[in-house]
User: Which sequence fits this backbone?
């Protein structure tokens, strides 16, 4: 019998680590990977809670999150590619043309 | 100390370690591998929590598709760390601020979880271990969640189209990233 | 037939005339003078007939409530409820008949006088508008309707004084009249506020019922403020100096507005609010005192003037002072009686002056006239009749009214004011009567008699005026002769019908009969004697021994110069008041308040918005890290807020 706190705690920690990574890393692709980390944390939370509450809605939601994550990956990496074609760099510090 | 709990702790530790590495590694390929490790640990945790099908889907979609895409991109862009002038992280104050923010956020989430636990109903031990069986998932997806299910397919279509449009090459642009600009299609060179 | 419902017709007809005239004045076609002038005069005549009918209705009825017609509720705000309503009592009857009657005669006169003027239609529009405003003033049953008329006549005065608007002096005179009037109106407005605050109503009848509610200090304050308004409108010290300048307007205007009607509005106001003045003897003393001083002061200035209309203007100021002596001493009937007779003979005098001006193509300097009685006999002899009336020679109208005032000044005691005041006022007024006779006949002799000092081409053109102008002169002369008989005092065996008439409206108690009749007769004889002496001296100075005036001026040069320059009042005013005001406006209000403060505030608001915007723009660094961190912090805060109760 797994205490309910476990998946919740692990999910929270994964989310926090992912958030830290998004803020700290300057390589666009690594940032993207950290985002996936955050999503995993959320998924874990969903699964854990639905396991405890015996609801099917949790896993269903997780399924949808995965679908969205896949779509996001496709589009996001396409964007990274396009930007790289223009600026020859994925360094986030170089992207400040939205300034002002 | 049931085996379930032990496995849980094991895989949890693995997931967290993997996550830390995703953030910390310098070489982006290493980051990708750490991410793969995290995915596998999380999938195992899914199994332990009664959602084996989702664990499979996690491996297939995340590890098998998304991660592959990421690795492709890394290879395509021939990224290499570190160049001497570039530093990996932002400046020190930014690091501290981010750390604090994330600790606070994490703390809040933990707290939230802890409080949620208090109001959660008592576990039904006698209930079947496996909750998210394919049958149950199918019933939910084609029943209550039919609309989101269909919308998801539209979303994926949009994502495909978007990816194609975004990466279309304007006329005359170099076909490969490191190839010198020349007319017509050319094969991408291997990264040196 | 009951006229109660038709009161509104009295001011309506002139208003219609003004509106239609205004529209007609806008068109390009040349004006049909007979039509324009005829219609305008006819409308005033209709008003006169309606007033006459109303007058006849209340005449036989004895002491009754005034006829009252409420048109509609005009203002209902908080505790202030004011109707647009008219009331018609005996006093109103006198005023409406004078205004419409004399107004009609002047309208007819103006058809001839303004012949060939470019703005003919405009003139009659303004004249009708004036009659309308004046009727609103006298018919109003509350202070606010009266104030509407008060302001209206001020406006028309401005429009008509500045009728020759291309002439700078005329435009300036119009402005001067209006601005000085405003100072008086300030006092009037304060009185209205105070009245409402104290009594809760602005209706004359309502306030009259509640006079017991207020203490003497309040009533004195209200009456003094009302008198400030009167001083402005009726050209008393210190707000008189606009009236001589107002002679820039065409002569019919001077006759109607600045002699017969508008300037008498102040006297009417005091009479109308008699129930307040009766309770404030200090105010009454102030009114009588100022009136008496003004009468004397203006007469001294008239001594040295050469412009015929200016002489008449100062004479008007002087006679208005007399009227205020009358109403100030509580003898409202005497003051109003003099108002009426003055309207007759002063209008006559002005119209006569206009006739002279017309004949001499605008010449007004009496030292350049002379001997005109041979050329324009009707004008001359009607003018003499007017002069006799104003001098107070019996049996002309002025004698009865002026004498009544002198008698009341002498005998009627104000509560709490020592009798010495009475004697001072009487003495000064008597002296002024003599002076009036003197300067009027100086004008008469120099203008119409003696040998002609006209330039040859003027002498060639001088002619009697047409019937449109001479007929009103004759009518007014007749009125100046018989008008006095309305108020023959008891002492001479008459019925004092004028005073009795006004008493029916509750105005003026018949108090002043304390002295025996003999005293009154003696005073009468005294005043006639003084007047005759004045005429005699004028005869001596200006007919017999012509060198005397010049010798007089030479021996007292400073006095002569000061009086000739009207005591330099205008110059003092310019230096003390207008100059600093202009400089303050320009330097303080314009440079500082307008440019720096107001423009600064407006521009500053814009600059502030710009500045704020620029600061906010700094948030958009374009750096992804900053955006991500702010999102995260926002999420943290939001979570914190949600989790707080737990």
Assistant:
């Amino acid at each position: 019998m797994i205490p309910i706190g476990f998946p919740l705690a692990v999910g929270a920690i994964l989310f926090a680590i992912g958030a830290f990574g998004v803020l700290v890393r300057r390589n666009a692709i690594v940032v993207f990977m950290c985002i996936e980390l955050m999503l995993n944390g959320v998924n874990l939370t969903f699964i854990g809670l639905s396991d405890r509450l015996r609801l099917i809605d949790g896993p269903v939601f997780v399924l949808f999150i995965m679908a969205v994550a896949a779509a996001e990956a496709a589009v996001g990496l396409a964007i990274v590619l396009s930007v790289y074609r223009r600026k020859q760099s994925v360094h986030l510090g170089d992207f400040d043309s939205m300034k002002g | 100390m049931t085996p379930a709990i032990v496995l849980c702790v094991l895989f949890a530790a693995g997931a967290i370690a993997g996550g830390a590495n995703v953030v910390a590694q310098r070489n982006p390929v290493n980051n990708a591998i750490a991410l793969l490790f995290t995915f596998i640990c999380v999938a195992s945790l899914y199994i332990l929590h009664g959602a084996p099908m989702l664990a499979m889907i996690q491996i297939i979609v995340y590890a098998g598709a998304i991660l592959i895409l990421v690795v492709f991109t890394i290879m395509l862009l021939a990224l290499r760390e570190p160049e001497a002038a570039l530093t990996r992280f932002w400046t020190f104050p930014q690091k501290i601020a981010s750390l604090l923010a994330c600790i606070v956020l994490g703390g809040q989430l933990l707290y939230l979880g802890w409080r949620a636990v208090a109001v959660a109903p008592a576990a039904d031990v006698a209930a079947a271990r496996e909750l998210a069986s394919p049958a149950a998932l199918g019933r939910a997806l084609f029943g209550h969640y039919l609309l989101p299910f269909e919308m998801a397919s539209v979303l994926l279509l949009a994502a495909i189209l978007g990816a194609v449009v975004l990466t279309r090459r304007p006329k005359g642009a170099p076909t490969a990233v490191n190839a010198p600009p020349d007319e017509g299609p050319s094969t991408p060179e291997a990264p040196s | 037939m009951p006229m109660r419902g038709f009161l509104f017709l009295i001011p309506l007809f002139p208003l219609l005339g003004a509106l239609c005239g205004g529209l007609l004045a806008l068109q390009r076609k040349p004006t049909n003078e007979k039509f324009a002038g005829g219609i305008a005069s006819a409308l005033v005549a209709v008003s006169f007939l309606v007033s006459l009918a109303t007058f006849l209705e209340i005449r036989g009825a004895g002491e009754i409530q005034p006829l009252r017609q409420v048109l509609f509720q005009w203002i209902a705000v908080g505790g202030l409820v004011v109707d647009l309503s008219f009331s018609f009592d005996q006093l109103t009857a006198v005023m409406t008949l004078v205004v419409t009657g004399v107004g009609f005669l002047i309208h007819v006169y103006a058809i001839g006088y303004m012949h060939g003027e470019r703005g003919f239609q405009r003139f009659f529009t303004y004249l009708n508008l004036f009659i309308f405003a004046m009727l609103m003033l006298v018919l109003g049953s509350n202070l606010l309707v009266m104030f509407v008329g008060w302001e209206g006549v001020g406006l028309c005065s401005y429009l008509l004084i500045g009728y020759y608007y291309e002439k700078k002096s005329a435009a300036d005179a119009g402005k001067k009249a209006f601005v000085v009037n405003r100072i008086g109106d300030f006092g009037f407005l304060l009185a209205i506020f105070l009245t409402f605050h104290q009594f809760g109503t602005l209706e004359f009848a309502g306030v009259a019922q509640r006079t017991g509610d207020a203490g003497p200090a309040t009533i004195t304050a209200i009456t003094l403020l009302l008198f400030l308004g009167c001083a402005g409108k009726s050209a008393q010290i210190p707000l008189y100096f606009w009236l001589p300048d107002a002679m820039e307007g065409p002569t019919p205007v001077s006759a109607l507005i600045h002699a017969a009607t508008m300037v008498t509005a102040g006297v009417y106001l005091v009479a109308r609010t008699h129930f307040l003045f009766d309770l404030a003897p200090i105010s009454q003393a102030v009114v009588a005192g100022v009136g008496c001083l003004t009468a004397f002061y203006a007469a001294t200035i008239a001594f040295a003037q050469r412009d015929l209309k200016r002489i008449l203007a100062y004479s008007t100021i002087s006679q208005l002072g007399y009227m205020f002596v009358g109403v100030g001493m509580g003898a409202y009937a005497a003051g109003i009686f003099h108002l009426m007779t003055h309207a007759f003979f002063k209008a006559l005098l002005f119209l006569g002056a206009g006739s002279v001006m017309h004949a001499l193509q605008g010449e007004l300097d009496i030292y350049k006239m002379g001997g005109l009685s041979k050329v324009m006999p009707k004008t001359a002899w009607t003018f003499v009749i007017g002069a006799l009336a104003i001098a107070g020679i019996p049996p002309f109208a002025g004698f009865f009214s002026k004498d009544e005032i002198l008698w009341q000044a002498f005998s009627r005691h104000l509560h709490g004011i020592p009798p010495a005041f009475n004697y001072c006022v009487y003495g000064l007024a008597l002296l002024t009567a003599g002076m009036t006779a003197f300067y009027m006949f100086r004008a008469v002799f120099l203008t119409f008699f003696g040998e002609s000092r006209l330039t040859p081409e003027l002498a060639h053109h001088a002619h009697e005026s047409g019937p449109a102008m001479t007929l009103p002169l004759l009518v007014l002369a007749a009125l100046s002769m018989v008008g006095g008989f309305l108020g023959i005092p008891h002492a001479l065996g008459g019925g004092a019908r004028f005073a009795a008439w006004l008493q029916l409206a509750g105005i003026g108690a018949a108090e002043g009969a304390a002295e025996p009749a003999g005293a009154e007769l003696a005073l009468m004889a005294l005043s006639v004697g003084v007047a005759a002496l004045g005429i005699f001296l004028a005869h001596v100075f200006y007919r017999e021994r012509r060198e005397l005036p010049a010798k007089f001026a030479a021996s007292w040069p400073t006095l002569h110069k000061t009086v000739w320059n009207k005591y330099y009042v205008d110059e003092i005013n310019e230096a003390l008041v207008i100059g600093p005001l202009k400089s303050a406006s320009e330097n303080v209000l314009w440079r500082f308040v307008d440019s720096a403060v107001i423009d600064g505030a407006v521009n500053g608001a814009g600059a502030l918005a710009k500045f704020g915007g620029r600061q906010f723009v700094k948030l958009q660094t374009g750096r992804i890290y900053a955006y991500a961190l702010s999102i995260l912090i926002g999420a943290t805060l939001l979570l914190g807020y949600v989790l707080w109760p737990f």
User: Anything to note?
Assistant: The interface with chain A takes residues 617, 620-625, 628-629, 632 of chain C (CB under 8 Å).
